[in-house]
Design goal:
The protein is an alpha+beta fold. About 35% of the residues lie in helices and about 35% in strands. It contains five helices and seven strands. The chain starts with a strand and ends in a 5-residue tail after the last strand.
């Protein structure tokens, strides 16, 4: 089940933060950089987020979430997190698919660590194409992806 998340609910936000820290710890290991901002975020910071959130549940347990921002012609995915204990089971793909259904836009944007191959492969499999790289720390690259509406799967 996928549903909107209200991060003003402290208990829910705490669960999201637990997943976020675990998921970004995996990415930090993959890319060799632990300065990822969501990895450093605290509960109050997460609860004050202005992003829209969707959560993926496995039964009663929240196992993943996606945060995004909308404009008239684009959706920008700012976070896609899956509890590492539930990774590689289609939860990330399901969140992306659900977002496509509820908020279709001509352009979708997302970025991830260039060395985070599971995320890179997921975005490429969903029709995203790399459009640039940014060095965020010495030797640490972030790949920016873009997908036009016609490329949605």
């Amino acid at each position: 089940m996928i549903t909107p998340l209200d991060l003003t609910d402290r208990a829910l936000a705490a669960r999201v933060l637990t997943i976020q820290h675990a998921a970004y710890a995996v990415e930090a290991e993959l890319i060799g950089f632990d300065g990822i901002p969501p990895l450093q975020e605290d509960l109050d910071g997460l609860m004050s987020s202005t992003e829209l959130w969707l959560g993926r549940y496995d039964g009663p347990l929240l196992v993943g979430a996606i945060a995004y921002e909308l404009s008239a012609d684009s959706v920008e995915i700012s976070r896609l997190i899956v509890d590492p204990a539930h990774a590689r089971r289609g939860h990330g793909r399901a969140l992306l698919d659900h977002l496509d259904r509820i908020a279709p836009r001509p352009v979708s944007l997302v970025s991830t660590g260039s060395a985070n191959l599971p995320a890179v492969n997921l975005y490429k499999s969903r029709g995203y194409a790399p459009v640039g790289e940014v060095e965020v720390a010495p030797g640490i690259q972030i790949t920016q992806f873009r997908r036009s509406g016609s490329a949605q799967r």
